[in-house]
Specification:
Shape: elongated
Number of domains: 1
Number of helices: 5
Strand order of the largest sheet: 2-1-3-4
Number of strands: 7
Structural class: alpha+beta
Largest sheet: 4 strands, antiparallel
Helix content: 25-40%
C-alpha cells in the first residue's frame, strides 16, 4: 500500500520558553495530522516561526507575539519539509529533499498530470513518468529501491494529505486559543493560507 503524509522538519529547540514543546532530536520529520499532542503542535509552530524569524516584528512588546509575527505576513511563510511517501509492502520510503518546502505540497498535482516536479536535493529524490505509472526514486544520487504509484491514484492520495493538514489546522486553532490568544485567529488563517490547506484541491498559481 502507498501512503503519503505531510511532514515538517522540526528541531530539538533546546531552551525554548515561550510555550511547551516536545523533546525530540534535530532534523526530525514530524507528520502533521490530527493526532499530535499539544507539545508537538507547539514544536511545529515554533519550528515554522523560527525558520521565518528574519521577518519577525521586533517592535512588539510581547516576546512570544513578536516571535509568532514572522508567520503572519500576507505573502505567507515557508515550512521545511514536504511529502513523505511510503510503500508499506516493500518498506521503501521517499522523504523530502533539502530545500523542499511543505508549502509547495500541491505541486504533486503536476506529477499526477504527467509533469515533472523538483523534490529537493541531497539525496535528490525525483519522479519518473512511465506511462500510467509514476516511479519515485528516493535517492537520485545512488541507485536503489523505488516506489511505483499509479498516476490515477495520486489525486486520491493527495486528498488524504489535505485531510491530514485540515486536521492539523484544527489542532493549531485549539493550541492558539490557549497559548497565543491575541494573534490566534490571524495565526490560523496564516497557517491555512501558507500551507494551502482548505482551498479546493487543485494547483494554486
Amino acid at each position: 500500500m502507498i501512503v503519503i503524509r505531510p511532514v515538517l522538519e522540526t528541531g530539538a529547540l533546546p531552551g525554548f520558553e515561550f510555550w511547551p514543546v516536545a523533546g525530540q532530536p534535530p532534523h526530525h520529520l514530524t507528520p502533521l495530522n490530527g493526532t499530535l499532542s499539544g507539545e508537538q503542535v507547539g514544536t511545529a509552530i515554533a519550528t515554522m516561526a523560527g525558520y521565518n524569524s528574519s521577518r519577525a516584528e521586533d517592535h512588539l512588546t510581547d516576546p512570544a507575539d513578536a516571535f509568532l509575527s514572522s508567520l503572519l505576513h500576507e505573502e505567507g511563510f515557508v515550512a521545511p519539509g514536504g511529502l513523505r511517501v511510503q510503500d508499506t509492502g516493500t518498506g521503501t520510503t521517499l522523504t523530502p529533499g533539502c530545500c523542499c518546502g511543505l508549502e509547495d505540497w500541491r505541486g504533486w498535482l503536476e506529477i499526477a498530470e504527467g509533469s515533472e516536479l523538483w523534490l529537493g536535493h541531497d539525496p535528490t529524490p525525483w519522479a519518473e513518468q512511465l506511462g500510467d505509472t509514476v516511479r519515485l526514486h528516493p535517492n537520485g544520487e545512488h541507485p536503489g529501491p523505488v516506489i511505483e504509484v499509479a498516476r490515477a491514484e495520486l489525486p486520491r492520495l493527495l486528498a488524504g494529505v489535505q485531510q491530514d493538514l485540515a486536521d492539523f489546522l484544527l489542532l493549531v486553532a485549539a493550541w492558539a486559543e490557549q497559548h497565543a490568544p491575541r494573534p490566534a485567529q490571524a495565526l490560523v488563517s496564516a497557517v491555512d493560507r501558507s500551507l494551502a490547506i482548505t482551498a479546493p484541491l487543485r494547483r494554486l498559481s
